[in-house]
Specification:
Blueprint: H1 2-14, E1 23-25, E2 30-32, E3 37-42, E4 49-54, E5 60-66, E6 71-77, E7 87-91, E8 94-98, E9 101-103, H2 110-122, H3 125-140, H4 145-161, H5 168-187, H6 190-198, H7 205-218, H8 223-240, H9 245-262, H10 267-286, H11 291-295, H12 299-306, H13 311-326, H14 331-343
Parallel strand pairs: 2-9
Antiparallel strand pairs: 1-3, 3-6, 4-5, 4-7, 7-8
């Protein structure tokens, strides 16, 4: 009997103290000055709950009611100075204090600017993006460089690489496997063979442009591989046919990414499918009644269905073909072609 009482008391201690308690769900840690943000409030299980969001000086920023078993999003909150922090969130009889890091709104432009500048200077994207993310983490960590480095790794890099539900891990595995396949094909001469099948057609400047366009369509599985293979292979041919390097760059660039975006077997597909999957998940969250029907759809099938509506890739490929067949150029490109035709 004594053992039974002890066991019962033990399980009672493990139970939550308030099964119907309301709470603040996933509050932000960093906000931008004069930029609206939002809070998510979870209602109680038994009744509606009144809430208020107050600044440190007692000004009521928002108030309302959260229904039982419901989630309310308090949007349009703005902080104009540090004196308004910390925020107080009152929900029924429960009060929460939010210690937020306030940074100037213009600071949000610095990470992308830094990434772009470093990419242009060093011509290397990974390091530039890493530096941009680190600068953003610096603001999140309260401008502590050491804490920013740790936050960058444990909160941004590792979760992003290990995100299975978001499709990041699948994209990496898919890209690595496809990249390995591309490397094998390139090593055994397969890609060069495809391009060499096209080059005998190039006997004039017009045919050389069309051959470059066709070679770009043939190397469809990756835009970077397309650029490297087609550009390096066709350059001696286009030089011999007196096609300007500017024209070659335009034809290669305007076929590499568009064809990779259109073909279902490419390094772009994994990422595009992950975006569609995220969109379906968000749509299901916003429409609970139709969530089952939304989530039952295949992201890959949706991608196939959207191909006719990918207007930029389709029009880019068409425009390259038309300008090559018609042998017409405009503006600086026409000047470059005239220079190449006369001086080589």
């Amino acid at each position: 009997m004594h053992l039974l009482r002890l066991t019962t008391a033990f399980w009672i201690l493990l139970l939550p103290l308030d099964l119907g308690a309301q709470e603040l769900v996933d509050p932000p840690s960093v906000i931008l000055m004069d930029v609206p943000f939002q809070l998510t409030l979870q209602g109680a299980n038994d009744a509606s709950t009144q809430y208020e969001v107050r600044s440190a000086n007692g000004v009521v920023l928002a108030q309302g009611t959260v229904s039982a078993h419901d989630v309310s999003i308090v949007a349009g909150l703005e902080i104009r100075s540090v004196e308004q922090l910390p925020l107080q969130v009152l929900m029924g009889e429960r009060a929460s204090e939010l210690e937020l890091t306030l940074i100037p709104g213009w600071f949000s432009l610095l990470p992308p600017i830094l990434a772009i500048v470093l990419a242009l200077i060093f011509r290397e994207v990974i390091t530039a993006l890493f530096a941009g993310v680190w600068l953003g983490a610096l603001a999140v960590a309260g401008f502590n460089p050491l804490a920013a480095t740790g936050r960058l790794i444990d909160r941004f890099v590792v979760p992003a690489l290990a995100d299975v539900e978001g499709g990041h891990a699948q994209i990496m595995v898919f890209s690595l496997l496809l990249g390995g396949m591309v490397g094998i094909i390139a090593r055994n001469g397969g890609t060069m063979g495809v391009v060499e099948m096209v080059t005998p057609f190039a006997r004039s400047a017009r045919r050389g442009k069309i051959a470059t366009w066709a070679a770009g369509l043939a190397i469809f599985f990756d835009d970077y591989a397309n650029t490297l293979i087609v550009g390096n292979t066709m350059r001696p041919i286009t030089d011999r046919l007196r096609i300007s390097r500017e024209k070659l760059a335009y034809v290669v660039d305007s076929t590499a990414a568009p064809v990779a975006a259109l073909v279902p077997i490419s390094t772009w597909v994994g990422y595009e499918i992950s975006l569609i999957s995220d969109g379906l998940r968000i749509a299901a969250e916003q429409n609970p009644n139709g969530a089952e029907a939304i989530l039952s759809q295949s992201p890959f099938v949706i991608f196939i269905q959207t191909i006719p509506f990918l207007f930029y890739p389709l029009l880019a490929l068409l425009f390259v073909f038309m300008t090559s067949v018609m042998d017409r150029d405009f503006g600086p490109m026409a000047e470059a072609e005239q220079r190449a035709a006369s001086k080589g």
